[in-house]
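This part of the workshop introduces the protein records we will be handling. A record pairs a protein's sequence with a compact description of its fold. Backbone structure tokens are a discrete shorthand for how the chain folds in space. The question running through the whole workshop is how a given chain folds. The record below serves as our worked example for the rest of this section.
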Amino acid sequence: MGLNQMERLQQEIIKTLLYFEVFSFPLNREEIARFCSLKVSGDDLDRALAKLLDEGSIHRYGHYFLVGKQKKWVEEREEKRVISSRLMEKARRNAQIISQFPFVRGVAISGSLSKWSADDKADIDFFIITRSGRLWICRSLLHFFKKLTYLAGLQHQFCMNYFLDEDELELKDKNLFTAIESVTVIPLYGTLPHRMFFDRNAWLNDFLPNAYPAIHLNGEINNRRSTLKRITEGLFPGKWGDAFNRFFLRLTIWWWRKKFKARGYPMEFFAQDFRSTTGESKNHPNDYQRRILRAYAKKLKDLGRG
């Protein structure tokens, strides 16, 4: 690797660390390689890290690297890994429950737990792929079930805030945030739908050329569909099922608009934060994606000034 290439790699390593510092999350060597925006070999990465450490541009605490000197983040990360290990067992069990609902074709753990960074207050988030043309029936049945979980205080273990159907698997938001969120999901049900998802989102490689989707790392993917599930799906055939799907789509949009406005969120963000089409259901309020990208941009700007 030439001098200019090495300098660029060092810059990209710093940018990678800064992105995760938005979450107060230090990275180890393997994670830096995985989330770096340049294709990199292990030897080049080690040389770049050694040079950055010698210059004082980054800092190392045990196995973890940071741009800043927040050693406490390393301790917090270790604590979160212990918490995540405990939550992962619940998540696997809950994923099996979700997988047997009508029209569910794929279930994956997403959010902080998928990165082993959940704290005591973390929700268990799920990314769900549904059968084509039945997303809103599937989602409505699952969210009726979630209402029942409130009775047992388990609602935070079933946060199902992102659905795609098999015909609309390509993500509309293509940026660093969605790239990292996508490659870190942990699929637990439905091998083929998740392979299709990664095939349809080949653009992920433009942001993360070293990141291998979790489906290649996870050997516990279930594909079983129960007899009861098959029978229930048979209750919504053809045009009858299409009509029900459209009804639940319209009903959900009406309800979400009402809640969005009542909570004082800017209505100009509704279409993105609560994107609702026949093949996509996104429920990400509070401007979260944009806030993360803005915080990352500020860190880059501050670094440039420094």
Summary: The radius of gyration is 21 Å.
